[in-house]
């Protein structure tokens, strides 16, 4: 109940309205993550109360910037931010990409237990991933530097698509290293219960 109250309060402060079944599944996902984490060390965050702001609310902070129908979560790890976003946006189709077998096993099991039909897990390195269709939104959270991420995944961006890169402090040096060919915009994010700087970089290819 304590976790639900913390999650509901955070969603309210962020202006995110989710139906009760989605909130329940977010909490179920948290329980799964905590359980698997004891054996598989999926995330450094151990305390479920800290997982609410640092994993759930942080993931959901990019909701206003998603556009679809196809979304790629690059380096999804334990399904973050892809699984919370897929629960919040059942109208979009998510691909959760990671090369780590242990983490993709967890993400696959989580999708199964949560009954998530609008997400799929792929175990592959991003630079070797060549799906039949490209993606409208590509999200990276804690995945390499911005220039390295763009170099590895540019081939996956559909015409008119864009990258959402989740960072901590303002990534001045990384942005300075981005070569021509992208229009960049940086948004400061406020995550309830998280006393740390969070920024999102929106990168749109211009050619």
Supply the CATH architecture. 3-Layer(aba) Sandwich
Tally the beta strands: 7
CATH class annotation: Alpha Beta
Calculate Rg over CA atoms.
Answer: 16 Å
Quickly give the structural class.
Answer: alpha/beta
Q: According to CATH, what is the topology?
A: Rossmann fold
Q: Can you give the helix content as a percent range?
A: 25-40%
Strand arrangement within the widest β-sheet reads: 3-2-1-4-5-7-6
Beta-strand content bin: 15-25%
Give the biggest beta sheet: 7 strands, mixed
Kindly give the count of domains.
1
**In sequence order, what are the helices and strands, one letter per element?**
HHHEHEHEEHEHEE
Low-confidence stretches: none
What is the terminal-to-terminal distance?
50 Å
Provide a descriptive summary of the structure in words.
This protein has 7 helices and 7 strands; from the N terminus they run αααβαβαββαβαββ. A 7-stranded mixed β-sheet has the order 3-2-1-4-5-7-6, with helices on both faces. With 207 residues, it is an alpha/beta fold. The mean pLDDT is 93. α2 (20-40) packs across α3 and α2 runs antiparallel to α5. It has a single domain, classed as Rossmann fold (3-Layer(aba) Sandwich). A hairpin with an 8-residue loop joins β6 (182-189) and β7. 39% of the residues lie in helices and 24% in strands. It is globular, with a radius of gyration of 16 Å.
